[in-house]
């Protein structure tokens, strides 16, 4: 029987896991191992992928991948034996002390000898699964405002900070990972960080509500033999639902300090810091890094693990690689370590023999055998130390919400409804209202300034600079602040709540048609906010091909910086149809993006989209503090740009358009320096109805920052924009929608894909924009609309 034949609500036990290579390793690392129990929760509305429950959490998987996994029905007696708690462990539980939230763990074996010399920088790596609360903890530790999200993989770049109160410390928030096998580029980043930059200690954050899967990473970290403390996070949620963790015996089993915390409520964090500083300072390494059990399945894995460890121990020391970790990776089949350890021919053969022997004795292939060994230990640990909560309130709530939001008939209508609502509120209901309010404030200031300057007999040129240049230009841009904030507000609410992960689940099948996977929906949706973070967030995608394709599509998702352009033109030319035109533009971008994806799929980026193995976290109410921090950052960023880039652009443009080459003030800006320079490009823009040097200038300035297009137009046109005509206005809108992304976005693309791709993006976006604008202009002219 294969996993894909399971019916919703049914459970089964996994017998073998097919497939090969990195992908299969990823399945194993996520807990899809022989012996594990799975329950099919539902299929996505379009029939694929499926949502499974395994090891107490929700995982998505495509049917085509599920087909490679064999299952067997769960027999009644085997189920019993699992649920009956061993009486021995029960008595153990009673006698052990029970520190709870806020009580210190105390597992320090080495004590206070031989500290690192005073003044040594204590570097920490913050490592944990996605969504375990790393960023929340990082913010608590450092007081910095990193963006926190509830989508697997929001942290895409590593971030450093100093722990509050410990100026000698430096903590790095690494991307969330599930294991130390490099499946995505993020996993590689984290692994290399620990191996190469050698932090003094690791803070391993473990989600206590999802402890089985989280500990899998913990065990691999322990093998690295770096001082470590486990931060058992989300204790509030665990305890709130009747669960507990026997921290003392967990410490004893893991051999490192374990500190229960709640990052969100800032509970236990101070203790965590004390332990972390202590283990780093006294270099207390894990007491134990050997978890294979000689009793386990005849000890096959145990013998192999130790044999390989002995084989490579000296090599490990020589090359500065933790040998136990290397041994585990070799047994898992990660051959990059053969080279790193410089094993000779003979040793390689021995290694192969050991692996073969293990596989024969164990009756499983090496990767599955290793994964199972780890989960075996985790099960034992959980039996001893963890009282599972009943189904948590959060989870029950999540299931109820999911009945609707990923339900067969409701998911897609709700998605469309929610997106429509977001756009409607942003552009129609709340946005314009706030914008008007801000605009009248700016107008008031402008009047005040004007009266003041007239009274003080200020030079007329300066008056014009301040009023027509700065107030009109920068003022117009600033008035769009509320709309931009709203867009970010809604996007971050959707992301924080966990909804975007569901969108990925629901849309996977559709995205697969254009050669992508559901995961790409995140960068694409973020693209409606700003292309820069969108491009960066593609690092969470597990394949290079998907990453590149997604990056190339993000510029088609119209970013918020283009809104001022739309708003400005629409209010002048189509005040009655604003909503229609703006929606149309967004849709045009999406449609062209899809078309391009089809072309990519059959030319540049042949091949298959990667599997869609993703965790669906519980829905969480977005924390106001996080949202507020994000908005504050965005507002700051926007205002900074408004008052630097756009301010300077406005002044430069004002100057160039008011003076001629002899630096005399000109009466008519047609004689100005700017007119002469921009004139060079005018012939190219003439066929699309934009053959006006003032438009060309504003578009060029848009390359610096899209917001400045409007401010420059304000400065150059004054009130006479209507002279453009409808056809040219539409052409301008289409051109602005599609032409090159701004410098910041191009730089981000360059970082991800290299300079040639970045250049290519600039060129073809401009070409495409020209062609599309030409078509729009031509059609309108043919119909006599000018
Ligand atoms: P990361 O992906 O590991 O960086 O995780 P985040 O810091 O983005 O947190 C993921 C989600 O868990 C967010 O919605 C947080 O608000 C939430 N969260 C983090 N820590 C806690 C905690 O201690 N208790 C509870 N109940 N929620 C938490
Ligand atoms: Mg994070």
Largest sheet: 6 strands, antiparallel
Mean pLDDT: 85
DSSP helix fraction: 55-70%
* Ligands present: guanosine-5'-diphosphate, magnesium ion
Task: Note down, in words, how this protein is organized.
The longest helix is centred in the middle third of the chain and has 45 residues, at 411-455. The chain is α/β, with parallel strands linked by helices. A hairpin with a 2-residue loop joins strand 3 and strand 4 (57-61). Magnesium ion is lined by residues 134-135, 154-155. Residues 128, 130-136, 148-150, 154-155, 176, 233-234, 236-237, 262-264, 496, 620, 623 line the site of guanosine-5'-diphosphate.
Summarize the structure.
By secondary structure, the protein is of the alpha/beta class.
């Amino acid at each position: 029987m294969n996993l894909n034949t399971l019916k919703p609500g049914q459970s089964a036990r996994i017998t073998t896991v097919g497939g090969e290579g990195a992908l299969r390793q990823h399945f194993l690392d996520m807990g899809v191992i022989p012996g594990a129990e799975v329950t099919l929760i539902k299929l996505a509305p379009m029939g694929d992928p499926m949502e499974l429950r395994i090891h107490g959490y929700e995982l998505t998987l495509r049917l085509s991948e599920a087909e490679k996994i064999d299952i067997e029905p769960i027999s009644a007696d085997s189920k019993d034996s699992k649920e009956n708690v061993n009486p021995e462990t029960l008595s153990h539980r009673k006698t052990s002390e029970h520190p709870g939230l806020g009580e210190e763990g105390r597992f320090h074996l080495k004590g206070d000898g031989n500290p690192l010399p005073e003044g040594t920088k204590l570097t920490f790596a913050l490592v944990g699964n996605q969504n375990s609360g790393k960023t929340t903890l990082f913010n608590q530790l450092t007081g910095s405002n990193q963006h926190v999200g509830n989508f697997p993989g929001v942290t895409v770049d590593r971030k450093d900070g100093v722990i509050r109160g410990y100026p000698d410390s430096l903590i790095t928030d690494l991307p969330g990972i599930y294991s130390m096998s490099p499946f995505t580029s993020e996993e590689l980043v984290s692994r290399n960080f620990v191996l190469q930059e050698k932090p003094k200690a690791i803070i391993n954050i473990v989600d206590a509500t999802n402890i089985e899967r989280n500990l899998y990473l913990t065990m691999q970290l322990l093998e690295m033999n770096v001082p470590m403390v486990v931060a058992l996070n989300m204790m509030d949620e665990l305890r709130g639902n009747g669960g507990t963790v026997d921290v003392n015996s967990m410490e004893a089993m893991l051999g490192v300090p374990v500190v229960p915390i709640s990052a969100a409520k800032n509970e236990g964090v101070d203790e965590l810091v004390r332990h972390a500083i202590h283990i780093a300072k006294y270099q207390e390494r894990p007491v134990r890094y050997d978890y294979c059990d000689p009793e386990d399945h005849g000890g096959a894995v145990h013998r192999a693990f130790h044999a390989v460890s002995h084989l490579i121990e000296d090599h490990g020391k020589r090359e500065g690689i933790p040998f136990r970790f290397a041994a585990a990776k070799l047994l898992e089949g990660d051959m990059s370590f053969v080279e790193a350890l410089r094993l000779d021919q003979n040793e390689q053969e021995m290694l192969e023999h050991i692996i073969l022997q293990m596989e024969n004795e164990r009756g499983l292939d090496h990767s599955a055998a290793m994964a199972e060994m780890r989960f075996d230990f985790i099960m034992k640990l959980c039996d001893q130390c963890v009282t599972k909560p009943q189904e948590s309130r959060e989870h029950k709530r999540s299931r109820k919400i999911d009945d609707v939001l990923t339900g067969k008939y409701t998911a897609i209508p709700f998605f469309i409804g929610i997106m429509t609502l977001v756009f409607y509120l942003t552009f129609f209901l709340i946005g314009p209202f706030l914008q008007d309010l801000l605009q009248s404030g700016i107008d008031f200031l402008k009047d005040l300034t004007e009266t003041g300057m007239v009274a003080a007999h200020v030079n007329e040129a300066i008056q014009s600079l301040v009023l027509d240049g700065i107030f009109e230009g920068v003022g117009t841009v600033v008035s769009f602040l509320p709309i931009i904030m709203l867009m970010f507000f809604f996007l971050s609410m959707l992301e924080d709540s966990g909804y975007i992960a569901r969108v990925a689940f629901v849309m996977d099948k559709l995205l697969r048609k254009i050669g992508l996977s559901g995961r790409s929906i995140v960068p694409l949706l973020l693209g409606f906010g700003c292309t820069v973070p969108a491009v960066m967030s593609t690092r969470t995608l597990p394949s290079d091909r998907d990453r590149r394709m997604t990056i190339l599509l993000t510029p088609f998702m119209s970013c918020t910086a283009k809104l001022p352009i739309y708003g400005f033109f629409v209010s002048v030319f189509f005040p009655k149809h604003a909503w229609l035109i703006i929606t149309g533009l967004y849709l045009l971008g999406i449609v062209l993006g899809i078309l391009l994806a089809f072309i990519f799929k059959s030319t540049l980026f042949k091949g298959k989209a990667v599997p869609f193995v993703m965790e669906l976290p519980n829905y969480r109410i977005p924390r106001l503090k996080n949202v507020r921090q994000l908005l504050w950052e965005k507002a700051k960023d926007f205002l900074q740009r408004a008052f630097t880039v756009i301010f300077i652009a406005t002044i430069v443009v004002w100057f160039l358009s008011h003076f001629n080459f002899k630096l005399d003030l000109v009466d008519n800006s047609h004689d100005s320096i700017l007119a002469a320079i921009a004139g060079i490009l005018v012939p190219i823009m003439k066929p699309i109805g934009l053959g006006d040097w003032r438009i060309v200038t504003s578009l060029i300035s848009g390359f610096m920052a899209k917001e400045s297009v409007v401010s420059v137009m304000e400065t150059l046109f004054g009130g006479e924009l209507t002279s453009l005509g409808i056809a040219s206005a539409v052409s301008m809108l289409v051109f602005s929608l599609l032409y090159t992304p701004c410098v910041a976005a191009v730089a981000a693309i360059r970082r991800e894909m290299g300079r040639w791709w970045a250049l290519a993006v600039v060129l073809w976006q401009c070409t495409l924009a020209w062609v599309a604008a030409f078509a729009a202009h031509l059609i309108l002219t043919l119909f006599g609309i000018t």
